[in-house]
Design brief:
NAD(P)-bd_dom_sf (chains A, B), Rossmann fold, 10 helices, 34% helix, alpha/beta, three-stranded parallel β-sheet, 350 residues, oxidoreductase (chains A, B), THF_DH/CycHdrlase_NAD-bd_dom (chains A, B), 13 strands, homodimer
Amino acid sequence: MASMIFTDCSTSTMSRLNHLNRLNGAFLPRPCVGKLSLPRTASGRGCTLSIRSSSSPSAIVINGKAEAKKIKDDIKIEVSRMKELIGVVPGLAVILVGENKESATYVRNKKKACEYVGIKSFELLLPEDSSEEEVLKSVSGFNDDPSVHGILVQLPLPSHIDEQNILNAVSIEKDVDGFHPLNIGRLAMRGREPLFVPCTPKGCIELLHRYNIVIKGKRAVVIGRSNIVGMPAALLLQREDATVSIIHSRTENPEEITREADILISAVGQPNMVRGSWIKPGAAVIDVGIKRVEDSSTARGYRLVGDICYEEASKVASAITPVPDGVGPMTIAMLLSNTFTSTKRFHNFQ
Amino acid sequence: MASMIFTDCSTSTMSRLNHLNRLNGAFLPRPCVGKLSLPRTASGRGCTLSIRSSSSPSAIVINGKAEAKKIKDDIKIEVSRMKELIGVVPGLAVILVGENKESATYVRNKKKACEYVGIKSFELLLPEDSSEEEVLKSVSGFNDDPSVHGILVQLPLPSHIDEQNILNAVSIEKDVDGFHPLNIGRLAMRGREPLFVPCTPKGCIELLHRYNIVIKGKRAVVIGRSNIVGMPAALLLQREDATVSIIHSRTENPEEITREADILISAVGQPNMVRGSWIKPGAAVIDVGIKRVEDSSTARGYRLVGDICYEEASKVASAITPVPDGVGPMTIAMLLSNTFTSTKRFHNFQ
């Protein structure tokens, strides 16, 4: 599931910015937070990480970490109720091939999240030189295992294995990543319902819903057209009656298009690509990109930076996700949600 | 296949407008055609069908009828070569349920087109009160029949039959309409290839190609998000690296978006909805809509009118499809092309 540009990192200097002012469902500009000492390190594309001026208007910070926590807590209660009533424990199988460090971290985070909510996780670590047949056999085994309700193949796979073949082999009833073309086709079609929606774009839309950001009739722009985020995010926004435009590497003057967006979702993994001047005043901005940028002033030696030049954008937008602690934690929450939904469907549990 | 708003009508007053000036692959404004006596009847939404002024610049008319003829002639040669070399005749099965007059006309046209190119057509006319099971059984029979390479269920089906169930039952290898969600999913995904692309949007893109209209990097706007035209047309444009926006009934101020389109495809079935002022000067305009509009001055008592106010648009656009004889004939040509492609795939014929 998901590529390496997505994470669910849970700590960062950015998390200090996460606070929210909500009154009767409406958003108020959050009050001046004074002078925050954000690192001044030069980051990609010349976005100025200036000290926040106390006179600038500021966007509501969409707290993905907090929302993900609420979702996980809800799932935890539901999982426990299911176990009590019908004795079933949801099961999520994760297949990891090879020793990609970042993949291993994601798998560990998923396992931890499963434990938190009470979902049983089945981890299968296959050696880097496993054959396609061996991976297919493992997928097939989980397809047939009634204690497994969701199957996730951690991407990327070693280059000698055909990703399509592996993903196509996952039973559509257990495709909790929502990457099977049949699920994507249903997502694209009016009047059809996918069994699962890919986790990261689902998390983006869930955040918009939870912050009462109107989608219907609004102009939405998605930057990036990947199979795992950009494209399904655009399809989801369209299902909710937004007027959607998709920007990609071949788009000329993308800023002219983004400036028309009431809702902007960026998922390209280009640090600080989207400047404040790209954003329509009052827009809701969702940043899916996440990259390490060297920063000697931090203990780790790097910071995590999104596609959006946060400091500039937060002065123009009405609501914005931070990086990290924005979309990242929602991805795992949606994976747990998809796994639980799958279990309910298998056992006809309401 | 396709809904009632698509047709392949082959005669009309509009056909008098079909002529083309092409020089070395570049488009020149076509010269003044003098005073054409187009009917002055009031048509939908107040589009003025004024007498064409000789001083107005005029768009190239994209002659779908002529291009469809060329495609059919090419297929005819290929079908004949296939028969000669491997003794195989492509087969297209059409299932028509009930006695919808328009559907019957389309089926007749398809049969005629099949005969023209040498494709064997199998027609199955089922009574209006056929059960879903009976229709499914027919689909299944054609799925198993090796002399059938394409199956087409004429839409709309009677209301007691679940369209989804029927379309899903068509073998994906014979889904020449390209409506199966697995084909749509592959169409939406980067790096995947659908077995078939829906005929009408495929015909639109084919016309753009045949008129050397650049798609890559251009702004494209699709009006309408139907499963059979708007949505797949948007996906196709995106596959060719256009920056695509989709407009629909919930879009506010659609004309602000269409005015940015280098390529505009309209597929809503609202006569003359798109006015000249909606169009960017120099845009290529593809009109998929087709509706009957009462017109006592014609022998039939009606005219066929597209979504685009042709008289206005043709003064602003650089290229435009007429209605009829624009996209309509291309739909059937693409159906024949899909059927032939399917046959080649079944018999591994190059």
